[in-house]
Design a protein that fits this description.
It is globular, with a radius of gyration of 26 Å. It is of the alpha/beta class. It has three domains: 122 residues, Udp-n-acetylmuramoylalanyl-d-glutamate--2,6- Diaminopimelate Ligase, Chain: A, domain 1, CATH 3.40.1390.30; 100 residues, Udp-n-acetylmuramoylalanyl-d-glutamate--2,6- Diaminopimelate Ligase, Chain: A, domain 1, CATH 3.40.1390; 99 residues, Alpha-Beta Plaits. Helix 6 packs antiparallel against helix 8. Helix content is 28%, strand content 28%. It binds zinc ion. Zinc ion binds next to helix 11.
C-alpha cells in the first residue's frame, strides 16, 4: 500500500527540497506521512473548489505547485481564503504537498515543459543556481581506494550532470597509531606505522551530503574516516532558473507572438516593441521571471517569455530582446500534467488525476 511518505520520498528524490529558493515553502504542508494514499490530484493553486474536487474524486493527497502557506502563521480562524482552505483540508483529511521553486529549478521541470510546448530544442538552463555543489576530501589506505570510491559513486558523489568529477592522488602518506595496548606495553615497539594513502576528492550535490558521508563511513576501513567538506563556487548547469532553447526556424517578432498565442492557447499577451532581427533563440521562465531579463540579455537570446512583468521591467529589455508576458497561470498550467505524468509512471496502482478546476484569478475582457 502506497503511503504519503512514499510519494513524498520520490518527489524529493527527483526535485530535492534543497533546490528551492530561500523564500519558498515547498514540501508536505498538511498531512500525516503514514496515511495510505487513495488518490492524488495535481493542481497549480489550492482553492476551496480544488479541495471539493479532490473530495469528489476520492483524492486524499493534493500535489500543488504554489504553496498555500508561505510564512509562519500566528492564528487559524478562517478569516481569509488561505485559512479557510487549511481548515477545510484538515477536516476532510486531505494532505497537501507543494512542489514549487524546486520544480522550477530542476532541468526536467516547469521550464522544460514550457519549452516543449513551444517546440524549442537544444535546451539549457538560463541561470544556474549557486550553492548546489560541495566537495568531499578524504584520505583512504591505497588498498581500499577503489572500494571507497565505488561506495561514494553509489551514494551520488563524483558527478556533475553526466560528467565524472573526481580526483585521486596517491602520493599522500598517513601514519597509523600503535594500539592502546602497544602504547602502554613496556617492550612493544611504539614506532608509528607508515601507511600509503590516497587523497580522494569528489564533488556531490549538497542535498546528498548525509548519504555521501554515511557511505564514506561505511566503506572506509578505519573506524572513523577523516574528511572535510567545502562548498564549491561551481554551479551545476542542470539546476537553475529559466531555460534557453531554439526554434527550428527563425521567424519575425510578429510571427513569434502569433505562434506563442497559438501554442499556449493565449487570448492576449503583453510585450515590448518587435525587434528588427528574427527570433530564433528563446528563453522561457514559468511564473515570475522579471529577475531573468539581465541573464537573457547576457545569453543573447532573441526573446524571453515569462510573466508578472511590471511596467518598469519592460524597459530592462533595452530594445535588445522581445520581452513577452503571457500571464502567470498560463505560463505554468502545463505543470499539472507534468506532475501527473511523473507520478503515474512511478505509482502505477494509484489514481493520479489532473485538476479540472481553473484556478486562474485573472480574467481578461
Ligand atoms: Zn507560479
Amino acid at each position: 500500500m502506497v503511503k504519503i511518505r512514499d510519494i513524498v520520498g520520490y518527489l524529493e528524490h527527483v526535485a530535492p527540497l534543497a533546490y528551492q529558493e530561500d523564500y519558498d515553502n515547498a514540501g508536505l504542508i498538511i498531512g500525516d506521512p503514514s496515511v495510505p494514499v487513495e488518490g492524488v490530484l495535481t493542481c497549480l493553486d489550492i482553492t476551496e473548489l480544488v479541495l471539493n474536487e479532490a473530495k469528489e474524486r476520492n483524492c486524499n493527497l493534493i500535489i500543488a505547485h504554489h504553496p498555500i502557506i508561505f510564512r509562519p502563521m500566528t492564528s487559524l480562524n478562517g478569516r481569509n481564503h488561505t485559512e479557510r482552505c487549511i481548515i477545510y483540508a484538515i477536516k476532510q483529511q486531505i494532505a497537501i504537498y507543494t512542489l514549487h521553486t524546486n520544480l522550477d529549478n530542476v532541468s526536467w521541470g516547469v521550464n522544460r515543459k514550457m519549452a516543449q510546448v513551444l517546440g524549442l530544442h537544444n535546451l539549457s538552463v538560463l541561470l544556474p543556481k549557486p550553492g548546489t555543489l560541495s566537495q568531499l576530501t578524504t584520505f583512504v589506505p591505497q588498498s581500499a581506494t577503489d572500494h571507497v570510491l565505488r561506495a561514494l559513486y553509489k551514494a551520488g558523489a563524483g558527478y556533475i550532470g553526466d560528467y565524472i568529477y573526481d580526483h585521486v592522488a596517491t602520493s599522500a602518506a598517513g601514519f597509523k597509531k600503535p594500539t592502546a595496548m602497544a602504547m602502554t606495553h613496556p617492550v612493544v615497539d611504539k614506532k608509528l606505522e607508515k601507511v600509503e594513502e590516497s587523497k580522494v576528492e569528489v564533488v556531490f550535490p549538497v542535498h546528498l551530503e548525509s548519504s555521501v558521508l554515511r557511505a564514506l563511513q561505511a566503506a572506509h576501513p578505519c573506524r572513523e574516516a577523516v574528511y572535510y567538506v567545502h562548498a564549491l563556487k561551481n554551479t551545476d548547469v542542470g539546476v537553475g532558473s529559466g531555460m534557453v532553447g531554439e526554434l527550428f526556424q527563425s521567424i519575425s517578432s510578429q510571427a513569434f507572438l502569433e505562434y506563442l498565442k497559438a501554442k499556449m492557447q493565449l487570448t492576449c499577451v503583453r510585450h515590448t516593441a518587435p525587434i528588427a532581427r528574427p527570433i530564433k533563440r528563446v528563453a522561457v521562465c514559468g511564473g515570475s521571471g522579471s529577475f531573468l531579463v539581465h541573464a537573457a540579455l547576457l545569453k543573447q537570446v532573441d526573446a524571453l517569455v515569462t510573466s508578472d512583468m511590471r511596467y518598469h521591467d519592460f524597459f530592462k529589455a533595452e530594445d535588445q530582446i522581445l520581452l513577452v508576458d503571457v500571464g502567470h497561470y498560463e505560463s505554468e498550467v502545463g505543470t499539472k500534467a507534468l506532475i501527473r505524468t511523473l507520478l503515474s509512471e512511478k505509482f502505477v496502482n494509484i489514481a493520479v488525476l489532473e485538476c479540472s478546476t481553473v484556478t486562474n484569478p485573472v480574467h481578461y475582457f
